[in-house]
Design brief:
The protein is of the alpha/beta class. The protein has 11 helices and 10 strands. The protein folds into 2 domains: about 260 residues, Rossmann fold, CATH 3.40.50.410; about 35 residues, no CATH class. The chain has a 6-stranded mixed beta sheet with strand order 5-4-3-6-7-10, with helices on both faces. A two-stranded antiparallel ribbon has the order 1-2. Strand 6, helix 8 and strand 7 form a beta-alpha-beta unit.
Amino acid sequence: MVIPASKKSLLPDVVRRIGRLEIRARYIVEGLLSGMHRSPYFGQSVEFREHREYTTGDDLRHVDWKVWGKQDRLYVKRYEEDTNLRCTLVVDGSASMDYGSDGMTKHEYASTAAAAFAYLLLKQSDSVGCVVFDEQIRHEVPQRTQRVHLSRIARALEAVEPHDKTNLDSVLAHVAKANPRKGMIVLVSDLLCDTGQLLNGLTALRRIGHDVVVLHVMDDDELDFSFRGPVRFKGMEIDDVVDCNPRALRKGYLEAVNRFLTRIRKTCAANAVDYSLVRTSDPLDAALMAIIARRSLSQRAKI
């Protein structure tokens, strides 16, 4: 595949050479914005306020059809808008995130994507916070709107050395409790945990009304299983070692991975969660562009 020159500079192995995470984030976002015809817009945080009776000329998109079905009368929803979007980045720092076959590890990729996302939101005066976790919360940065807040988020992301297992159930329950008002939650993880944990966590967030984005980060090795010759696999979150011929296992492994990905997609779809699977070999701006495109479409569909 031939990669356009504008994309080559955003490949993970190039971006990784930029030592400081904050500088990486700025580099990625400024490159992204320079290629866009208009600024990305994530929309305002919208809260329902009250109903009022429909009058001629009101937009039918605002009609509450559930009320009409019960009362046979037309009512329009009215909303209050906050000036800023409130976003919390939830980044996986568990042991499995320390894997990387080429270029960046999953944790480096996830942290870089999260920092770039934070910078993008801070540039448009949105409020951004960050949580880094494994079995528990390791670092928590409160939501702020100042652009200098990026430095604090970057330090929290850089401070973590991946270890321990993943516990999405309790972590997302904490995030839900800490964010009782509607906003945006961006989960960046390899999701190597019990699917039930993910379901419980997403349900807790969606019950509040949060817009939830899941950035599912996986390495090429995990998705393609292109190993050759005798290989010893060591567990990163469990004490286990397997010596095997990978060619004999490849078909069964890929089938298991496809079942895993299908469960994740169905879990996210069932909770109206915006899901993206990204490889650590993907250009760093690709994940952001996908989220921006979907977010823009959903905002145009809203009131």
